[in-house]
Write a structure and sequence with these properties.
Structural class: alpha/beta
Order of helices and strands: HEHEEEHEHEEHEEHH
CATH topology of the largest domain: Glutaredoxin
Strand order of the largest sheet: 4-9-8-5-6-7
Organism: Christiangramia sediminis
Helix content: 25-40%
CATH class of the largest domain: Alpha Beta
Protein name: Lipoprotein
Shape: globular
Number of strands: 9
Radius of gyration: 23 Å
CATH superfamily of the largest domain: Glutaredoxin
Number of helices: 7
Largest sheet: 6 strands, mixed
CATH architecture of the largest domain: 3-Layer(aba) Sandwich
Distance between the termini: 90 Å
């Protein structure tokens, strides 16, 4: 075989090798775990995840081999009794506001490293992304305040998430958990697609983990629903 053809063949084989390696690396392994930590099939995981009767929320994270782990990890609902006075002080420090009327708080929390969607970096929130989120929430916040007087809504992002500068209107509701107070004291279980919390002046706190809407969580303020979580 002429030298020139041998060189072409060598180049072709090397290129084919690197292309095959790149294709292989683009498909990381996926792992699925149930609430006990047992490995399960992806179809079983998805059936559990989408079952409305399933009491558990989920979390995704990257394994050491760069594979994606999807884990059914903790309960969707958590209930606590907290010191409202201490919580209120922390909220005033976080927001720079004074809440004189002891409102009921509804918090929406976004976790760092949340792979809720795979088409964007989990910790990089662009201006467009923030604007879309605000435009979606703004009319729902107005409806919430009309239906439930003396209620405050706050959208909180865990420290470590890169955020653009908020507009004046966005700064009324969007905040960074810069000290990680909420992450450490309230939203202690990282959850796929975030979590909500309702904190009442009497110290009752209800957490709802997993993807949910503001309209859905605000319905929990209905006494008939609220009292199913707390004995009166």
């Amino acid at each position: 075989m002429p030298i020139i053809y041998r060189n072409y063949l060598l180049v072709f084989l090397i290129a084919s090798f690197f292309l095959s390696c790149a294709a292989y690396k683009s498909e990381p392994t996926e792992y699925y775990l149930d609430e006990t930590g047992k490995s399960i099939e992806g179809s079983t995981f998805m059936a559990k995840f989408h079952d409305s009767a399933n009491p558990y929320a989920a979390w995704n994270y990257i394994a050491k081999d760069s594979g994606m782990v999807s884990e059914i990890s903790h309960l969707k609902y958590e209930t606590y009794l907290v010191s409202y006075e201490k919580f209120l002080l922390q909220m005033e420090q976080l927001t720079g506001k004074n809440f004189y009327d002891n409102p009921t708080f509804i918090l929406s929390y976004n976790f760092r490293d949340d792979y809720c969607t795979n088409d964007r970096p989990p910790n990089d929130y662009s201006k467009i992304r923030i604007n879309q989120r605000f435009n979606y929430l703004n009319p729902k916040i107005k409806t919430l305040k009309k239906e439930y007087r003396n209620t405050e809504f706050l959208k909180i992002f865990e420290s470590g998430i890169s955020l653009p500068e908020f507009s004046e209107k966005q700064r009324a509701y969007f905040f960074l958990d810069s000290t990680n107070f909420l992450r450490e004291k309230v939203f202690r279980n990282p959850t796929l697609c975030g979590s909500y919390a309702i904190i009442k002046p009497n110290g009752q706190m209800l957490i709802r983990n997993g993807e949910y809407g503001l309209s859905g969580i605000s319905n929990h303020l209905d006494p008939d629903i609220w009292n199913t979580f707390f004995d009166q």
